[in-house]
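pasting for ref
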Amino acid sequence: MSERTFVIIKPDAVRRGLVGAVLSRYETKGLRIVTLEQRRIDADLADRHYAEHVEQPWYPPLREFITSGPLVALVLEGDAAIDAVRGLNGATDGRRATPGSIRGDYSLSNRENLVHASDSPESSAREIGLWFPGLS
């Protein structure tokens, strides 16, 4: 069953020139890019995106990081896209992510871990609506 998922290629991946490598992983898997935009975000959008984490003591450094430079926001579509993307991304902590995953191959951090992806159909719908409100 085809579904859509939201992805952020984070500022660390953009700074390191890994956008093409990350996008290639998704496309090679068979996922289709529905929309893609490079942009910078402000603290307000970061807080709305990470609403469930805003009160956590570790959130302020995450907000500082995600607003620190350009990122790439995109929507991917394909069979079981949410699970497929999360599998390609690997474990959140790049130091523990499986080799062959995006984080396992390119990240040595828990915070600066290159990518974000929706974790459920509900979060995907919320995040797509937040970042790409005109997308139906």
